[in-house]
Amino acid sequence: MTDVLLIALFAFLGAAAAGLLGAGVLRLLRHRSLVVSLSVVAGVAVAAMLAGTLTVCWAMFLSPHDLYVVTTVVAMAALISLATAILLGRWVAARSRELTLATRSFGDGGTFAAPAGQPTAELAALARELAATSAKLDSSRERERALETSRRELVAWISHDLRTPLAGLRAMAEALEDGMAVDSGRYLRQIRTEVERMNGMVGDLFELSRIQAGSLTLEPARISLDELVGDALAGADPLAREHGVRLVGDRIDEVPVEVDGKEMSRVLGNLLVNAIRRTPPDGTVAVAAHRSDGGVVLSVTDGCGGIPEEDLPRVFDTGWRGSHARTPPAGAGLGLAIVRGIVEAHAGRAEVRNVRGGCCFSVTLPTA
């Protein structure tokens, strides 16, 4: 038993010395290639075995011939181990370089494509994560391009829509100032109308900026749908009468919702105004509300004739007004963007689809 303990002690001391030396070498070479690190690890393992074996052999006073045989066997094992470690390191390093080049391509604005070679399980997992990240970046770039396009269109349309009433206000003010206005009362009424329209545009811009900045503060309260829709219909009735449009709201379920009443009134108001202005005289704008599996659905159906299919994904974009909406009554194209922002702030969603003779805007809200 004592001999076994001595052999174990000598083997441990020899291996520990080799291990400490290898740890120091690894620390010095920790920033070098993976091939170097794997070679050092293999060398440490072989050196530890060799040191332990030789220490025990010397302690056992083996003959020179036996010691030579043991040393030769261990040395051959060390060569094979080192060669295997170097080959493995070169293979892993090559796969890492391929993955680095592929990563650089999508970092420069391209799309990530995984290398064709068979990597290790860890590198394969990393490649899958990089592919998923690349897909997210592509989607983000696409959204950024769409937002930038909508911003440019918004600036152009806002500039146009502000310049036109400003030119009219200047002309009317100069006519009043020079005493050239035959009917000063009509001029003053027109000035007030233009100022109110510009004030509405500025208010929409401010509301949209709050939504996009994430500073929209909601004050939710429990409200009945029929009460919410009834107030919105009453507010839109004068505009509907002016355009000769009939408002219908007889399919309203008495479902409670917990929303910010002021903001949701703005949502319904924007949808109703947009529907009334797009519906021809003698047309109908219908409002409905019902409970569904996904929550509470509010819908506004107009008689605009429908929206081109290629434009449907852009309806709620900032500044979108359609190909024919360039006149002042069309506004600045912010109403539907505000609708989507307010609805999403309520953890809901806003959608649009074409129906027979027009389109249907629907708002889905969580149930109270």
TrEMBL record:
Keywords: Kinase, Membrane, Phosphoprotein, Transferase, Transmembrane, Transmembrane helix, Two-component regulatory system
Pfam families in the cross-refs: HATPase_c (PF02518), HisKA (PF00512)
Taxonomic superkingdom: Bacteria
GO molecular function: kinase activity
Domain Histidine kinase: 157-368
Keyword 4Fe-4S attached: no
Protein name per UniProt: Sensor-like histidine kinase SenX3
